[in-house]
Amino acid sequence: MELQQMRYVVAVAEEHSFTRAAERCFVVQSALSHQIKALETELGVTLFARTSRRVEITAAGSAFLTAARASLEAADRAAADAAAAAGEIRGTLTLGIIPTVTAVDIPAALGHFHRTHPSVHISLRGGGSDEFLAALAAGTMDVAVLGLPEPTPVRGVATHLLAHDRLVAVLSADHALADRPRLDLATLAPETFVDFPAGTPGRAPSDRAFEAAGVRRTVAFEAMSIDLMLDLVRHNLVITLLSPAAIPPDDTLRIIPVTDGPTRLEYLAWSDFNPSPAARAFVEQVIGAAPGRK
Questions:
Q1: Which end of the chain is more exposed for a tag (fewer CB within 10 A), N or C?
Q2: Beta-strand (E) ranges in the chain?
Q3: Do residues 87 and 276 lie in contact, with contact meaning Cβ atoms separated by under 8 Å?
């Protein structure tokens, strides 16, 4: 049994096609099919049920797939650790990025990291803080930037506080409240809001703040994209609360401080259980360039 055979099995399982798996592995399909058939003969089991039009993994294949992925990860980690010991960072870096990153210039950070460690393969994932925390704890993600309401204890991962922001109100320049020097939640509550989906960490700071203030608001639109939120605000359909650093200069928008507005914490987070050399190098770079601030 060879590692390359395991890689072929993983590729077929994920692509549901021998043709696409061969393309992904940069090998001709006949060679990939031959290697998987040889592996099945060696193991004495059928890993895939296939016809000319359909490929499905068998129960035996599913059991093998789990162990194969773990073996490949261990092999990649062994190679990365050996390279790190020799002074070279290799392997992969899986980075989770929330839509509201403001404390780190992600493109600049990745550019510097790639120039410093060109042998590291970087995989970027978008999503929310909850799923990133679960992925970090499960070992399927290396590093993530999280946005969480205050106070939120973070357990099971290592963290570094990057930013502590008070959210501001964002209104259309045509809004009736656009000329106010400051606002409070009671004044904003009757307005129609756009916010992140209910139950997400991005939404939690505002929901908690309105609850603490004893006033209710109406969130008519939910979105994960800040650009979409701001477009709705520009059309004077809604208002929103965002970190001031997330709002680009725009004459069609008004940014107004909220005296009792919500606060938000932004963290760099990573697994504290045996992080990879690439993860350690990226964390050290980001913390060195952007120390925690309040």
A1: C
A2: 48-50, 55-57, 91-97, 120-126, 143-149, 158-166, 168-172, 192-195, 218-222, 240-242, 253-257, 263-270
A3: no
Omega of the bond leading into 153 within 30 degrees of 0 (cis): no
Return the closest-CA partner of residue 255 out of 193, 165, 173: 173
Q: What is the dihedral sign for C-alpha 158, 164, 166, 170?
A: negative
Q: Which two tokens stand for residue 160?
A: 């570094």
In this prediction the pTM is 0.62
- β-strand partners of 113: none
Return the residue matching tokens 């995989």: 123
89 phi/psi in degrees, rounded to 5: -90, 125
Token digits of residue 126 = 């978008």
User: How far separated are the first and last CA of the chain, in Å rounded?
Assistant: 54
Q: pLDDT of 12-68, one tens digit each? A: 999 999 999 999 888 899 999 999 999 999 999 999 998 878 889 999 999 999 888
What Rg value do the Cα atoms of the chain yield, rounded? Answer: 24
Q: Which string of DSSP letters, residue by residue, matches 221-255? A: EE-S-HHHHHHHHHTTS-BEEE-GGGS---TTEEE
CB atoms within 10 A of CB 28: 11
Determine whether 152 is exposed, middle or buried from the number of CB atoms within 10 Å of its CB (0-12, 13-18, 19+): middle
According to DSSP, the residues that pair with 91 across neighbouring strands are 120
